[in-house]
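tRNA (adenine(58)-N(1))-methyltransferase (Polysphondylium violaceum), 331 aa
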Amino acid sequence: MLSQKKIIEDGDRVVIYAGKDKMQVVTIDAKSGEYCSKFGNYKHKNLIGKEIGTKIQSDNNNGFVHVLSLTSELWSIALDHRTQILFNLDISTIIFNLELKNGSKVVESGTGSGSLSSSIARTIAPNGHLYTFEFHEERAEAARKDFRDNRIDKHITVTHRDACKQGFRLDHIEGMVGSIDAVFLDLPSPWEAIDHAIAVMHEGAMLCSFSPCIEQVQNTCLKLAASQFQEITTIEVLIRTFDTRLQEFEELNLSNPYTSTTTTTPPTTETNTTTSTSEPKAKKKWNQNKRETFEIGGIQGLKKDSLLSKPISEARGHTGYLTFARWVPEN
Ligand SMILES: C[S@@+](CC[C@H](N)C(=O)[O-])C[C@H]1O[C@@H](n2cnc3c(N)ncnc32)[C@H](O)[C@@H]1O
């Protein structure tokens, strides 16, 4: 996940990309690995030596895929959901507002499916460290395995523990207590973990809590205010994705019949078109030069192709509220 390789090698962890919603994470296995799908069959040994990102024809010549490097962004899309996970929009907001960078020391709970953990690890590597706490034993073990497979395990310590009861102190790790730059909480009762967070943070460190419900946010804010946190801010990050596509429009000539003598002349001014006297441009996929006329009730109009941008109606809505605060105790 941290590698910057250009050429596929045996043992690499890559994403086989057959489309936006058709990605699979695989480890290249020259001996027996094979990827088979409706996009064709690919023996891993035939992928070795190919350039990352290029189009690769299937062995049986009935399709193609692209092979991409595994990034934390693609991992958040392709991973196995063992829990609800954080997605890239919330993740980027968290990483920026927690002021994370190479060298940061971070505490997180719960680990869940490791979606956020992977992005944190990528941001703080190679000199930082993530201490992540998960009270569900199998989830903690599955996360450890994913981090090992994705080769980010040396930047992450997974601890199986109830963070609200046992806190975040790892006394066997020298210098951990009092050195944490940022704490991230994705817990049902985050306010129960705030005293434990303070026990490992240094002064001026940041905390972020993610909660789906506003009542959780209210309790968390009250606890933060009572615990000498400053800059307490809650935000909700909503995405509004736009779809841009070719659309045919019908434009009627609705000029006022009482003031005009040319009531039946179709409109002639069009953006994005060449004038009739100029050389026709090379044909595009869509017909920007279309000039078909039509008539409704004696009024003439012009059909034309145009680009339309509109928000996608099924865009993802509320995920949760992010509450940020800085610990600046006065005494
Ligand atoms: C929604 S998931 C976290 C998802 C994670 N942020 C991600 O992006 O993949 C919440 C996790 O917190 C764990 N959890 C809940 N209460 C906990 C506690 N008191 N201590 C540690 N982990 C806890 C749950 O087992 C669950 O795996």
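Residues 262-277 have pLDDT under 50 and may be disordered. The two ends are 42 Å apart (CA to CA). ok done for today
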